[in-house]
Every structure is written in structure tokens, then in C-alpha cells.
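User: Design a sequence. Structure:
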């Protein structure tokens, strides 16, 4: 949402309509995430660290997973010297699939129960 509608994102965030991270926090998350097949362990590590600083009442909630369709494109990360955006199936992809642009992702969200 931050990329597609930055003004809306900031409005929702600053008016506390949704619990959304700041632009700086999003950038730090992105720097620590690396595309890979399956679940990313570092996402759960970040959630564990964040939960340690949350009140007990906000630690109980729902972890939701949803698949989303993305724009199929590739990019080159000059720091890691890797191409991202290609299909990654954890070594199960065919030679043709290795050159195909990925267009789906699995999104993870935690929503606290706040009775």
C-alpha cells in the first residue's frame, strides 16, 4: 500500500486508523528480507522481537496468510549481486521456470485480538 498510495498510507498511519509501520521501519524490514522459497525465518524473528515489546494483551491474535498476485518483473540488487523477481521453488523449478518471472507472493499478517 505504501508504494501504490503513499499519501493514503501516511494518512491511515498518522491518524491511527491502522497500526502501520513508518517508512523508515518498512525500509529496515525490506533490507533484512531476502526472497526465498517457503517461509522466511527472519520474518518470524522480527515478529518475536516485536512481541517482546508489546503489552501482554496484544500478544494474542491471529496470524493470517494470504497469496497475492504481483506485477511480473525482475530487478538486480547491486549489494547482493543477485537478480530478484524470478520463480523460486526451492530447487524444484525446471530450467524453463528458472528464467520465468514470478508473479505471486505469500503475505503474512498478525492482527492482535483487542476485546
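Assistant: Done.
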Amino acid at each position: 500500500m505504501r508504494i501504490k498510495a503513499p499519501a493514503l498510507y501516511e494518512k491511515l498511519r498518522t491518524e491511527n486508523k491502522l497500526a502501520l509501520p513508518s517508512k523508515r521501519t518498512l525500509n529496515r524490514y525490506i533490507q533484512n528480507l531476502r526472497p526465498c522459497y517457503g517461509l522466511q525465518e527472519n520474518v518470524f524473528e522480527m515478529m518475536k522481537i516485536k512481541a517482546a515489546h508489546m503489552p501482554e494483551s496484544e500478544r494474542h491474535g491471529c496470524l493470517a496468510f494470504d497469496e497475492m498476485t504481483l506485477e511480473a518483473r525482475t530487478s538486480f540488487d547491486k549489494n547482493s549481486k543477485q537478480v530478484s523477481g524470478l520463480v523460486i521453488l526451492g530447487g524444484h523449478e525446471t530450467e524453463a521456470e528458472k528464467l520465468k518471472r514470478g508473479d505471486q507472493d505469500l503475505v503474512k499478517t498478525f492482527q492482535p485480538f483487542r476485546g
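The chain has two domains: 1-32, 35-112. Residues 35-112 form one domain.
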